[in-house]
Design goal:
By secondary structure, this protein is of the alpha+beta class. It has three domains: 216 residues, no CATH class; 38 residues, no CATH class; 69 residues, no CATH class. Helices cover 49% and strands 14% of the residues. The chain is built from 13 helices and twelve strands. A hairpin with a 2-residue loop joins strand 6 and strand 7. The longest helix is centred in the N-terminal third of the chain and has 35 residues. It is elongated. About 4% of the residues have low confidence.
């Protein structure tokens, strides 16, 4: 089906209808504006997820001890020769959100996000991927499931669900925009004695007056409109404004953002750009959107690039999401004191959480606890007045 046939069927509700060139321009403008609203909401949601993931630190452990070797550098700095980690992760999330799945192939020491591929699903054996392309290069080989990283976002493609919902809602938005524009428009009455004969010079001038000169006259701030004998132009009575305002239309456009945000587990206020309640909205998004996404990516990396044997020995990768939030040191100074004083974190742990370099001193790696903490048994014994001797026996 050609473009014009498709367009006429869309306008005709599934049936092909005849449309003129001017009608095509109007229809394209309408569809372009509605698509932009939908795409803006979708890509804003995708960018929120991608930005959150790119802030995370991909930590690598070898036999239970954190190490910063080649695998750490691969995920946090240079996954391939042409992309840094942020660009790579943004492309990964964009493909994942748009297509509900994403294929990452491993070529030597490089990780590449496939632009297109054919997935051959099997039940008892490994799935295979053929016709894999990255950019303008096509791989002439078959990739097996165990050789690649394959991510799936949801059982159902949420972008398609949101698009279907928006397909109905966009009619309401277009109606409101049209009603608003009509209520703000100017109306004129044109009177004339006789209609010139078709094909005559007078008819050509008459048609030019209707189609061109009137439009320029109405749209210009200052203009003169030459009229012939028996012709008269009068503006109708003062226009009456419809009840709708641009804020009403904006509210309906915000509804599209809300639909999209809910589809991806993001708090709607983040997509709308609201400042109030940002902390709660961010916590909601981290819990229901970012953390599940990170878990899915982390699990696929561990099972494909490490395996059970290495994992059982304490060699694995962990994506740390604690650095996503912006940290104001002055606002959390009391919390920092509690974390160190309770012995949960050492000084270097806190420095790393705050984005600072660790201190290369033995005391910075030690855990401290204040004297306010003691065993429950000791506290009860003190309340009863009992004391302990050197052999730790009550006297």
């Amino acid at each position: 089906m050609g473009f014009l046939e498709w367009l006429s069927s869309k306008v005709g509700g599934g049936k092909s209808v005849s449309i003129s060139g001017d009608e095509i321009d109007d229809i394209l403008q309408e569809y372009t504006s509605t698509i932009c609203i939908r795409e803006a909401a979708f890509w804003t949601a995708a960018n929120i997820l991608a930005n959150a993931l790119s802030k995370c630190e991909f930590k690598t452990y070898v036999k239970g001890e954190e190490k910063k070797g080649s695998e750490y550098y691969l995920w946090n700095y240079e996954p391939n020769k042409n992309q840094n980690s942020s660009v790579f992760l943004h492309k990964l999330i964009a493909k994942l959100c748009r297509d509900n799945e994403c294929l990452v192939i491993c070529i030597g020491e490089q990780l590449l996000v496939a632009d297109s591929y054919t997935k051959n699903e099997k039940v008892l054996f490994e799935n295979t991927f053929t016709e894999v392309t990255v950019g303008d290069f096509s791989f002439q080989k078959t990739f097996y499931q165990s050789d690649v990283l394959f991510f799936e976002l949801n059982n159902k493609n949420m972008r398609q669900v949101v698009n279907d919902l928006y397909g109905e809602y966009e009619k309401l938005i277009q109606y409101s925009i049209s009603a608003y524009q009509k209520s703000r428009g100017r109306k004129f009455l044109f009177e004339y004695d006789t209609l010139p004969v078709a094909g005559s010079e007078e008819r050509k001038n008459f048609d030019d007056l209707i189609k061109n000169k009137f439009k320029k006259f109405i749209e210009s701030d200052n203009a003169v409109l030459p009229l012939g004998k028996g012709q008269k132009v009068d503006e109708t009575a003062q226009k009456t404004y419809a009840a709708e305002t641009t804020r009403d239309i904006r509210a309906m456009i915000d509804d599209i953002s809300d639909f999209t945000a809910k589809g991806f587990g993001i708090h709607p206020s983040l997509l709308r750009g609201d400042v109030q309640g940002t902390k709660d909205a961010l916590d909601f998004t981290l819990t229901f959107a970012v953390d599940p996404l990170v878990d899915m990516i982390q699990e696929e990396i561990i099972r494909k690039r490490y395996g059970f044997k290495a994992f059982s020995e304490g060699t694995y990768l962990k994506i740390d999401t604690r650095v996503i939030k912006h940290i104001d040191l002055f606002s959390i100074s009391t919390s920092i004191d509690k974390l160190i004083g309770s012995g949960v974190f050492c000084v270097n742990d806190i420095l790393q959480l705050c984005g600072e370099n660790p201190i290369d001193e033995p005391w910075a790696k030690q855990h401290f606890i204040t004297k306010n903490y003691e065993l429950v048994e000791d506290a009860l014994r003190a309340m009863k007045g009992g004391e302990k001797n050197e052999d730790n026996l009550e006297t």
